[in-house]
Amino acid sequence: MVTAVAGCGRDALDREALVDPAACEGCHADHVREWSGSMHAYASDDPVFQAMNRLGQRATSGALGDFCVRCHAPVAVAAGLTTNGLDLDDVPRSMRGVTCIACHQVATVTALHNGGLTWSDDDVMLGGLDEPQATGGHRSAYSPLLDSSVMGSSDLCGACHDVRAGGLAIEAPYAEWAASVFADPVSGVSCGGCHLAGRDDVAARGGPTRRVHDHRMAAVDVALTPWPEILSQRDAIDRDLAGVVSARLCVYPTGGGVRVEVMLDNILAGHAFPSGVTHARRAWVTLTAEEGGVITFERGRFGPGEVIAATTADTWVMTSRFLDDGGDEVTQVWDARAIESSLLMPAVTRDPDDPRYYHAQTRSWFVAGQPERVAMSVQLEAVGLDVIDALIVDAELDPALRQRIPRHLLRGTRHEWRRDRDDSCAP
Questions:
Q1: Rounded to the nearest 5 degrees, what angle is found at the Cα of 230, between the Cα atoms of 228 and 233?
Q2: In principle, which of 86, 189, 214, 319 could form an S-S bond with 197, CB 3.0–4.6 Å?
Q3: Considering the entire predicted model, what is its pTM?
Q4: Which long-range contacts (CB under 8 A, 24 or more apart) does 418-426 make?
Q5: Is the backbone of residue 283 left (phi > 0), alpha (psi -120 to 50) or beta?
């Protein structure tokens, strides 16, 4: 392990040092601290990833190869330290996960999926500052791929965050973004524009105040084993999820009871909600009605450890399912021939005359009686417990990890209707 540089402007780092994120800490302490708790840093240590990769290698008799690990440990793959990810525990810490040079030395994007990246092999660190300050540690240069203000910077993200297998788009956040209003070259927002929130600070210790970016890169996944910055990472996830979906709850009288209507609109995600490994994601509506202080109706109220399946009866679940040639559900990507999704898609046009402009989705339920209070919210599990259970049954995952899968509450979707307010809808 290369020790951290004591300060900036000293001796130039050799290639071994540049590869190690610890060597960056002397000058870029905040960035390294933020990154250290990110899912990029955790990418090859994540026990769910490791379990899925082991299962895939076994199920395909090794044909899976570096399909997964080329994005979860790209530097290790490029250095020839692993070919299938089964030996990641033997890979030096400096080469595990998505490290500093995995992004800051990307030379070209060769494909917008499946790790289509090439890297330089020199002492030049690339970034989004168009006038990088000289430093004795390494040479620096501007790259539009690292500049979040440039729409094309999303290509770097898409290279790993879109995944295709057998022609099937099994993860598509980049493609979803590219088809949305967020990709507009004039008024759009790049991937980094959301996931690398900006602030005014120094890019390197002793340098001038510049516009720098949060390297936590929060999304929805969290570390399930002891890891740095866990609370900070979860706070960032809670912050970003709070307003991503707009929700409206309406209650209308009808024969013998009321009709409860929930409308959801993906307003702030530049891709589907949820996105990424959507066959593992579980987002759902929780709905309860009370009359006389007693809960008379509930949907989507799941106790701790209870499975939220993709087809849970009468519950609005946002996820996707793999299907085989016969249309039957399968659980693994190597068996999938089609995908059936119930995601909330992003806006694709700002033209109100375009029929695609109104993309909110609405579901309704009949509730008998005369409820005095109806409440709703949207929650999310980044990895559904049914997926976790399957890995445990296959003896690929420690059962103790099951209880560590968090549920995220989208605070902006928590609404309550009360009969005594004389309003049909909330908010």
A1: 115
A2: 214
A3: 0.93
A4: 418/372, 418/373, 419/370, 419/371, 419/372, 419/373, 420/372, 424/250, 424/251, 424/252, 425/248, 425/249, 425/250, 425/251, 426/248, 426/249, 426/250
A5: beta
